[in-house]
Amino acid sequence: MQSLLALLPREISGVLASEPAFRGRQIFSWIHQKNVRSFGEMTDLPKPLRQKLETEHTILTSHVDLVEEADDGTVKIRLKLGDGSLIEAVLLRDAGDRVTACLSTQVGCAMGCRFCKTATMGFIRNLDAGEIIEQLYLLEETAGGKSIDNIVFMGMGEPFNNYDELSKTIRILTHPEGRNMGQRRITISTSGLVEGISRLVQEHPQVRLAVSLVSAEPVIRKELMPVEIRNPLPRLKEALLEYQKAGGRRITLEYVLLKNINDRKEDPGLIRKFANGLRCNINLIPWNPAEGMPPVNLPEKGSLPLEEPDSGRLDWFQKELEKLGLTVVLRHRKGRGVNAACGQLATKGKKE
């Protein structure tokens, strides 16, 4: 059966061609504004239409397969999709009781970032807009109906490698007849795909942008993040300036700190140089350990294991960045107890 969750009002009207056009708006509002999950509850629709919808269409196509909650209040859910694929999504709570949903855009990922557990899955497939939105709604249901304040596309997958479905997700969630979420409450985290940033500038300039920098040294970044090969730092910087010119939004540069790899004495200065001309925050993220991660190979250093930095080095690195005039936010290690922290999401792809 076809899901109506991923359709805009005019598209729902197109599916129901024999019905008045306003039915599409009614159904869209029931799903995304009134959070109804059964066509039978749509009481302002004629009973024959409700029965037809129940027979021929559906709203949700996935279900929660596993729920894990960390001591810090972080909740991770594993979803089983209609084809049996498995993905993960995370609900994060901050000290002010603000709730953020971390959503996935792909099953697996093709980017090959050496410090990220999702990369070990390889790329399996893109999610459609409905499968992305379902994560948000199922997280809310798992949290007892708690409304989610913000969304970060920072889960499994590279969002810009699934741009069309990502864009449709944004259009649905920000639609005035639905959830009507402000674009500024949505953040896209990318490994640094220049083409995706350029498209975002044209289509959703108010959406917030976070970029995994990880290293401002091209040789090291290329080893840690193969995206550097086709999207080198100078091109990335140009794209970020373009984004900032269009929307004026502050950019987040994410820096996963790895012991003895990107925490050298020269690294803060290289970050400062890359950040020149950008209005940005530096999100400093101590690497979150994940099992089975292979070592990296760096010139002059050879093979190095992935390790989290000790607290002293982390404190030194933060202070060096601040001395250089950068705004630094130390990312707290939320969700580590259930492998829900940054870089720890991964599944077997399909349930055995």
From TrEMBL:
- Respond yes or no to whether keyword tRNA processing is given for this record: yes
Molecular-function annotations in GO: 4 iron, 4 sulfur cluster binding; metal ion binding; rRNA (adenine(2503)-C2-)-methyltransferase activity; rRNA binding; tRNA (adenine(37)-C2)-methyltransferase activity; tRNA binding
E.C. code: 2.1.1.192
Q: Which cofactor does it need?
A: [4Fe-4S] cluster
Record InterPro entries: Aldolase_TIM, Methyltransferase_A, RlmN_N, RNA_MTrfase_RlmN, rRNA_lsu_MTrfase_RlmN/Cfr, rSAM, rSAM_sf
* Residues binding S-adenosyl-L-methionine: G157, E158, S189, N288
Judging by the UniProt lineage, the source's domain of life is Bacteria
Using the UniProt record, name the top-level EC class of this enzyme in a single word. transferase
So what family is this one in?
Belongs to the radical SAM superfamily. RlmN family.
Record's function text? Specifically methylates position 2 of adenine 2503 in 23S rRNA and position 2 of adenine 37 in tRNAs.
Q: Add the further remark from the entry.
A: Reaction proceeds by a ping-pong mechanism involving intermediate methylation of a conserved cysteine residue.
User: Can you say what this protein is called?
Assistant: Probable dual-specificity RNA methyltransferase RlmN
Species per Swiss-Prot/TrEMBL record: Marispirochaeta aestuarii
